[in-house]
Write a structure and sequence with these properties.
By secondary structure, the protein is an alpha+beta fold. Helix content is 18%, strand content 11%. The protein has 2 helices and 4 strands. It has a two-stranded antiparallel ribbon. Strands 3-4 form a two-stranded antiparallel sheet. It is globular.
């Protein structure tokens, strides 16, 4: 999410609160790259990423390897496969 700062020069009754603007890119690959570059205070060598199909389908999710041990220890999570690379198609979207 992009945060738009509130201008400090506006009078109190006209203050606009920070707005969250969803990140939009033309491919999953560029979205992940931009998100990782703009996140502060993360372990860039071992990023914690969750990929979901959409918010209506959360039965199966993909997690980054940095989250694997935590997932294995959670009794509400079943790890279905070993870690594998996320493949991108020719347009840069996750297969």
């Amino acid at each position: 999410m992009l945060i738009v700062p509130t201008p400090t020069w506006l009078p109190p009754h006209r203050t606009v609160y920070p707005r969250k603007i969803p990140l939009f890119t033309h491919s999953d690959e560029s979205c992940i790259q931009i998100a990782l570059r703009t996140c502060n205070y993360i372990d860039r060598e071992h990023p914690r990423i969750v990929h979901i199909q959409d918010t209506m389908n959360l039965e199966e999710i993909y997690i980054s390897e940095a989250m694997l041990e935590e997932a294995k220890q959670n009794e509400h999570v079943e790890v279905l496969s070993a870690p594998e690379d996320w493949g991108f198609d020719k347009d840069g979207n996750i297969r």
